[in-house]
Amino acid sequence: MKKMKKVLALALALVMAGSLAACGGSSSETKAPETTAPAESSAETEAADGQTYTIGICQLVQHDALDAATQGFKDALTEAFGDSVQFDEQNAQGDSNTCSTIINSFVSSDVDLILANATPALQAAAAGTNEIPILGTSVTEYGVALEISDFNGTVGGNISGTSDLAPLDGQADMLHELFPDAKNVGLLYCSAEANSQYQVDTIKTYLEELGYTCKPYAFSDSNDLATICTTAATESDVIYVPTDNTVASNTEIIDNICAPAGIPVVAGEEGICAGCGVATLSISYYDLGVATGKMAARVLQGEDIAAMPVEYAPNFTKKYVASRCEALGVTIPDGYEAIEE
């Protein structure tokens, strides 16, 4: 009703101004009333109008990396929209089927946007809706996760997001820098995670070019991790583990096997490294979540998600665990940052 009164007032003022001009009056003598406030950001305007948003967050499992990504995402959106954004945050406890159940509940609730944290969550979201905007995070390779054979950096449709892929050639170079005399590298990963398979296949090529003999050691889930890890520790000089959610949730198992055997582990991300590794070339998952949250703000303000390319972490840091390196006799060169223990 207030907007209608403003429109009528403006129309009346314009008619009066036109009448005066027709009678030879100066237009400067009659001014139309101002009808707009000073420019505000889109977020501020929407909040002032009472617009609220509900964001569904499906996180595959609880561990440091995914937790940090979710927190960064929420912080970025809260900074943009304040109390106008609400979160329905649910954790699938490592179960892909539960991801599907969570996504279906978001679709039924008609949330404004879905955050899919980790590959199985993204896959469930993609299968659950082609209308609600979906942003992935902590997803290594979108083409692999979504089975896009000609992936060019933009998913299209209702999906985009951020990737946690650290340069695998850089990780191979780091392993070579730390262990130039090693011969056999074991590649330990969960075969149920498509992005883990991708990382292992890719880094294997780089490591073989550096002269290593590489052998994959795939476990299906946490139940057979100890058995497979024990075999890998027996047959390897160094073990590499990629960014892998099952590994991230079970680092204690790996550490309890590899540390007593004197086998160093090079990890694909910081959380895994802190739990069982000696060194990593990693990203900040909190910053990755912040970047995803900023993408979400743009989507909620009307930007076309179909045209938004997947974004990647801008910075990578070499990090190490001092106590584990000392215990295993690993010398860390300059340029590495210690992980807090």
Task: Write out key terms for the chains shown.
341 residues, six-stranded parallel beta sheet
Layout of strands and helices, then pairs:
Blueprint: H1 2-22, H2 42-48, E1 53-59, H3 64-81, E2 85-91, H4 96-109, E3 113-117, H5 119-128, E4 134-139, H6 142-145, E5 159-163, H7 168-178, E6 184-190, H8 194-209, E7 213-219, H9 225-235, E8 238-241, H10 245-248, H11 251-261, E9 265-267, H12 270-276, E10 279-282, H13 285-300, E11 311-312, E12 317-320, H14 322-328, E13 337-338
Parallel strand pairs: 1-2, 1-3, 3-4, 4-5, 5-11, 6-7, 6-8, 8-9, 9-10, 12-13
Antiparallel strand pairs: 10-12
Helix pairs in contact: 3-13, 4-5, 7-8, 9-11, 11-12
Polypeptide structure, described:
- It is a single chain.
- With 341 residues, the chain is an alpha/beta fold.
- The chain has helices at residues 2-22, 42-48, 64-81, 96-109, 119-128, 142-145, 168-178, 194-209, 225-235, 245-248, 251-261, 270-276, 285-300, 322-328; strands at residues 53-59, 85-91, 113-117, 134-139, 159-163, 184-190, 213-219, 238-241, 265-267, 279-282, 311-312, 317-320, 337-338.
- The chain has a 7-stranded mixed beta sheet, with helices on both faces.
- Helix 3 runs parallel beside helix 13, helix 9 (225-235) packs parallel to helix 11 (251-261) and helix 11 (251-261) packs across helix 12.
Task: Provide a quick synopsis of the model.
This protein is an alpha/beta fold and 341 residues long. It contains 14 helices and 13 strands.
